[in-house]
Amino acid sequence: xxxxxxxxxxxxxxxxxxxxxxxxxxxxxxxxxxxxxxxxxxxxxxxxxxxxxxxxxxxxxxxxxxxxxxxxxxxxxxxxxxxxxxxxxxxxxxxxxxxxxxxxxxxxxxxxxxxx
Length: 116
Prior knowledge:
This protein is α+β, with helices and mostly antiparallel strands. It has four helices and three strands; from the N terminus they run αβααββα. It has one domain (3-106): Winged helix-like DNA-binding domain superfamily/Winged helix DNA-binding domain (Arc Repressor Mutant, subunit A, Orthogonal Bundle). It has a three-stranded antiparallel β-sheet with strand order 1-3-2. The mean pLDDT is 90.
């Protein structure tokens, strides 16, 4: 993924993670693995874990500690009502921006350079 795509992803990753959690509860590594399976190869686990801490602190998710066969209990995150509201706002904003950007892309021709 190029630098521009990485920067755009940073601005939308919270919404993407909330959308994943709207579908099912998951722990950090599961979320990271799913993102990588979807082609987001450059996302570091640390980025996802830091985001999970932030959305937990903001009260957007519920957290349950679940025993693990491979070490300490896992924190499993699930979207709560406040998180769902936040996700709905994200989708409204995403739709607005996507429509305007597509409109811009299709209706505005790039300026011509002198001599062309």
